[in-house]
Amino acid sequence: MLKLTDVSVKYGSFTAVHDINIEVNAGEIVVLLGSNGAGKSTTFRTISGLNRPAAGELVFEGNKLNRRPADQIVQMGIGQCPEGRKLFPAMSVEENLRMGAFVHRRKRDQIKHSLEHVYELFPILKEKRHDAAGSLSGGQQQMVAIGRALMSKPKLMLLDEPSVGLAPLVVEQMFETIQKINKEGTTILLAEQNANAALKIADKGYVFENGTIVLEGTSAELFANDEVRKAYIGA
Amino acid sequence: MTNVLKQRNVVIILILFALAFPMMTSNTYMIHVMTLSFIWMIGVYGLNLLAGYTGYLSLAHAGFFAIGAYSLGLLTVKAQMNFWLALVLALVITCSIGLVVGAIALRTKEHFFAIYTLCLGYIIYLVIDKWDSLTEGVRGLIGIPAPAPIGPITFETEKAHYYFVLFFLLLVVLIMYRIVHSLSGRTYIAIRNSEDLAQTIGISTKTNKLTVFVLSTFFAGLSGALYASFVRFIGPDIGSTNIVFDLLTYLLVGGIGTLSGPIVGTLLIVWLSQLLQDFQQYRMLIFGPALTLLIIFAPRGIVGAVATWNMNRKLKKYPNNQARSGRSRNDSLVKSEIVPEKQVKEG
Hints:
The complex is a heterodimer of chains A (235) and B (347).
Chain A: E1 2-11, E2 14-24, E3 29-33, H1 40-47, E4 55-60, E5 63-64, H2 70-76, E6 78-81, H3 93-100, H4 108-121, H5 123-127, H6 138-151, E7 156-160, H7 168-183, E8 187-192, H8 195-201, E9 204-209, E10 212-218, H9 219-224, H10 226-233
Parallel strand pairs in A: 3-8, 3-9, 6-7, 7-8
Antiparallel strand pairs in A: 1-2, 1-4, 4-5, 9-10
Helix pairs in contact in A: 3-6, 4-6
Chain B: H1 2-24, H2 28-53, H3 61-77, H4 83-105, H5 110-130, H6 132-135, E1 141-142, H7 158-180, H8 183-193, H9 195-200, H10 205-231, E2 233-234, H11 241-254, H12 261-275, H13 283-297, H14 301-317, H15 322-346
Antiparallel strand pairs in B: 1-2
């Protein structure tokens, strides 16, 4: 579905991501592991069109993504849920969600339907739909961010560190929901530092270090790998 | 619900007051000042849409104001065109120039955009000032006609002209209301929030920013054209940077990014300067510090401060209401966003 071949990304003369190869098949949950600054977010920004690759090729369902503007990439079916639960704080929860359906803005019935679906996944959001998004707790804001990404009806959803700054119990619920979204037919590419939780739901993973992929494998393989255990699971 | 009713009542009272104003005074000078402030308001709304809602502080608006004014002036005086045709053409000319200029200017962001547009405004001023053969340069354009009569309605008297401008002001406010409360309005606010984020939900920031830019030059051009037909004389001074900072002051005092801010700010400052006319050269001694204090303590201007005060009062009444506490919290978020724009102005 999505294939990155020898992709490098530069900020000025600094190479943030170097020669990475990633493949995501339809229906999978794929996780990118790595510490801060390893290049996960840069990879995401490149897939969603906010950064341009310096070299390599990005292909989504047979179409090259390299020079496409970000809004077209959303239209092609890649929805992004950015890092740090970025919302529109002055807008209400429902307005935030509706903004997520921007590419479908003329299809009113579909928007209504998607909205119901998001409220089904996150019932608390229905309760708070008229509240300003900035007033919600961290976990609820993350729900809004994921819900907003869902509103664009993506084929592939990019989730950048959904667990960051959340309580362990909330993290668990969040991953359950991500799994549920995946089972409903959305392919998921996930960036995480919480390897334990992420590998439990993922099909396969890539480990980033200093801008390159140092390890890849199925989640069972990675889970069993000593280095991964030492670095990310702490056991 | 009661709030909506209240708001509606206030709007109705304001419109009635505006309609009745010329009957309440026989002093044509007061009507003259009021008409002028209405004209400024239209320009301030243009600036508000771009700087307040989309987050792009354009300092070229005096230039577009002048383009609108000169287009109308030249078409009616030199080309002897009918007023209404000239008005439409003046708006078309302003928007076309806005489209070309915007496409280039919007490649820059934040402070760079403000500086770029400041230079641009100055270039427009220079062109008008130096292009003697077309614009008459410093001599200015004299004898711009009043709006041509529609059937039995003529616009020769101050009162008639007052209603003529009021009509356009109400139209502009209505358009602004519709824009701000539509998906487009929220799209612009999304761009102000974060352009990256706006892009990742599928908003084409390029086209949207260009649309706002052209729309705001439309308002600036309209205000300029109305000015030309009202004052009947225009010089290159109307394109000077002083004018854009006047407009910006009205906007900041009233409340940037608010719907009623332009009205409140313009009325207050225009009438204050009238009252303080005796102190001509000392006026700025009062205005300067007052403006600085306002920006420190009420970054969203008078309208923003009143809204926050209202919110806090409600919060005291219903301390458990999450929704309201939320709104006041994100008010401060909005404030912090707007602060950099102020710094540009001061610097």
